[in-house]
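forwarding from the other thread:

> can someone predict this with ribose-5-phosphate?

sure thing
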Amino acid sequence: MILKTLVRAKGVSSAFTGVEFLFNCMNVSDKMGPLETAKKIAAYKAIDEYVKDNSVIGIGSGSTIIHAIHRLAERVKEEKLQVVCIPTSYQARQLILNNHLTLGDLESFPKLDCAIDGADEVDAEMNIIKGGGGCLLQEKIVASCAKEFIIIADYTKHSEKLGQQYKQGIPIEVVPMAYVPIQHRIEDNYGGDVKIRMAVAKAGPVITDNGNFILDWHFPQDLSDWNKINEEILLMPGVVETGLFIKMANKAYFGMTDGSIKEQP
Ligand SMILES: O=C[C@H](O)[C@H](O)[C@H](O)COP(=O)(O)O
């Protein structure tokens, strides 16, 4: 349907031309576009640097982690590595299973060697926003169990100050019955605008992997004491977890447009 509309809009006559047009619009051709390439090189670097034989690895969620899983599967097969993967979402679980990797859980493997995950934004002080895809709670639990927490991201995720790059707000996972009081409390205490995240292919709000709602807090740009703000929000009854990952990551790899990888710190 979208394709037909596009074809009509462009006044072209074949669906094939429409496909080409659609791919050009999305900057995705038969080759990988610069954004996807940037994700891939960051993901490959993290897997190559941090995954060792006989290790337990946390597998994050999102689009960048897909590249990491592909590289991990490649290495496990070629080097015959023994690696147990702990998922941070249903998506991660499916990726692990679909790529024939060994699935574990925190009951059997409470101590991880490393967790690798994407990010929505990373500032100069390693304050991180996560949860753009709604997966923050299990991601934070898994990261907290890992000796090292490694972020993989493309060049659009790097900023000096939170909010410079990522415009969707800070995701906050909440118990459904409490979402309106929490919305008011955050707006009253800090300002900004707190919106409940609505589903796209379902009527009503997004329901997380844990059966909760997600609030997206569009915060005022003058806020900066993220450690304190995070702790205060976590104390609000009904808040399950925030998408603020404050100084949890040991390393962030950003794939850049020129094919290089920026490391932080
Ligand atoms: O909820 C989603 C996760 O926190 C992702 O890791 C984050 O949104 C980054 O995802 P992506 O790799 O697609 O940019």
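The pocket of ribose-5-phosphate is lined by residues 60-64, 117-120, 130-136, 139 (CB under 6 Å). thats all i got for now
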